[in-house]
Structure formats: structure tokens, C-alpha cells
Amino acid sequence: MSEYYLRVEGVNLNWFVYDTQDLSTTRCGSQLLNYAIAELAQTVPGLNPVSTGASPGIFAFSDQDPQAVVAKVWEYLENDHRLKHASFVVDAVGQPPDRAAFEETREVLLAKNRWHQMTDPAPNRAIPSTLAGLACRIDGVRLATREVKKGGDL
User: Fold this and answer.
1) Which domain holds residue 74?
2) Per-residue exposure over 23-40, b if at least 16 CB sit within 10 Å of its own CB, e if not
């Protein structure tokens, strides 16, 4: 029996939760991430929660293709009308034969998640395709809604 672990985490919270000064919006955004992790095991068959928190979650699964499970998780995150605007990272790794090595497995998952967070500016492709070409002139990553002409020196 092949066993795997999957780690999913909401990332780049400044762009989704903390991009407003409205306390209600901030609370709802952070609570939405908490619900997303809790709902994941109910939405994707075969995922068993191992450790869940406000934004990250580790799930165990067995006898399934890890890439297919990751694809199912992405499908859920990208198609949910509430979550498609948030940024997530999702990775899966195989369980080493020595079950005592879970700490190492957890660290590998965390490292893979951080790698994807740092190398992909929009990990869940949250930017609508109609706006994809409008990138910020300063960093070339953040979404620009329109071009602004500035006068004077910057």
C-alpha cells in the first residue's frame, strides 16, 4: 500500500486577507481560509486530516496517484466561488518506509510549499485571464487595473 501526505496552505495573505482596513473583511477572509482547510477532506475523497490549522493543512492518503490528488485539490480551490481569489500552494510526497520519519516528511512538504510560494507569483492562477496582461510596471508581478501616467520624478 502506497501512502502519501499532502500539504496545502493559503499564502500571500496580504493580497487576500490584509489588503483592507475593514475589520469585518479581514476576519471573514481569514475565517474563509480556515473553512477551506476544514472542507478539503470532505470535498476531495480519500484525504484524511493529520494536522489542520487556520491556513495550512496536512492530509494523508493512500493508493492514489499523488499528482491526480493534487489536481483534485487545485480543482476544488480554483472553482470554489469563494476561494478562487485566494493564493494557495499544494504539494504531495510519499511516506518514507520508517513511519518515525514523519517530521522529515513534514519539513519536505513545508519546503516544497515555500518553494512554490516564492517562485510563482500567483500560485493558484487567481488573476483572471482578461486581466493577465496588465502587470504592475514596478514589480511586473502584481495586477494592474489600468495604466497611470505620473508626472515628475519618482
Assistant:
1) 3-126
2) eeeeeebbebbeebbeeb
Give the strand pairing for 56-62 and 48-52.
antiparallel
Q: Is residue 103 part of a domain?
A: yes
Taking the C-alpha atoms of residue 32 and residue 82, their distance in angstroms, rounded to an integer, is 8
Residues of the chain with pLDDT under 50: 124, 154
Amino acid 47: pLDDT: 95
List the one residue out of 114, 104, 91, 98 whose CA is nearest residue 12.
114
pTM: 0.75
Gap between the Cα atoms of 150 and 5, Å rounded: 50
Q: What is the CATH number of the domain that holds 32?
A: 3.30.70.2220
